[in-house]
Amino acid sequence: MRIGELAEQAGMTTKTLRFYEQAQVLPQPARTASGYRDYDETSLARLRFVRAAQGAGLSLAEIRTIITVREDQGPPCGHVTALLDRHAAALDERIAELEATREEVRRLRDRAATLNPAACSEDGVCHVIPTH
Amino acid sequence: MRIGELAEQAGMTTKTLRFYEQAQVLPQPARTASGYRDYDETSLARLRFVRAAQGAGLSLAEIRTIITVREDQGPPCGHVTALLDRHAAALDERIAELEATREEVRRLRDRAATLNPAACSEDGVCHVIPTH
DNA sequence: GTAAACGTTCCACCGCACGGCAAGGTCAAG
DNA sequence: CTTGACCTTGCCGTGCGGTGGAACGTTTAC
To answer: What is the pTM of this model?
Structure first.
């Protein structure tokens, strides 16, 4: 199977496939006599796995560790479980940060609605955003 | 006032100040005869404003637009209000995305707890992450 | 006079997941 | 034989907010 064909089936570009190969989330395929990449049927399954893992917010580096663990030690369930736990915690933290920022933005928005533009002092940039 | 002094008072590095100048959120200061930057008292207020605006999640590019509007048209209240509204909407969207990802991660985590590692098929990478 | 502690410019790099383009090789159809 | 569609490698650019280092000039203290 040629690269363009696989890319089409996976809904990705050939660029992405070559990038995944370099990122070691897609194994180096066989080559034809003239140097063309020649993929087997397992490649599409691998690409689907990568996409599913990305859907869970995993980076290519993290996906690579799962693949490496699998190749070295068999089913990577323990590794994946720990990875997912860490990810859930990181997401909690990130969401909390964004929610705090959202609250700050809303506070400022309300402030903007009550302040008089004419009262904006000369020497600041904007009295809606307090500097302390 | 020299750059190191201002940096210390603002709790930033000299690198950051020069970067802000290039990003046009900090005006180009006067120079001494030998070419050293020579800041006035308004600079610290400006840096505090930048930091406060960053705290509300505004990018340097957005902060620059506020400053530009202020310089061109006076108090930028209307501009800032619109900016904050757009930001609140973007934050809502981003938080919703992350929450969806978090749900997906938790679903997978629960799945990992119930699946038998020995049942992991030979030809996939990890049966915890389904490739539907 | 000299050494330390500052200052200057410019260029490169970080993570992340690709996209664009160039210069060339290969393969099938007409 | 030629055209066009495909493939190869390689290197640079993207956005964001800086950080690091090199190579060199200035100021201050002793």
So the answer is: 0.88
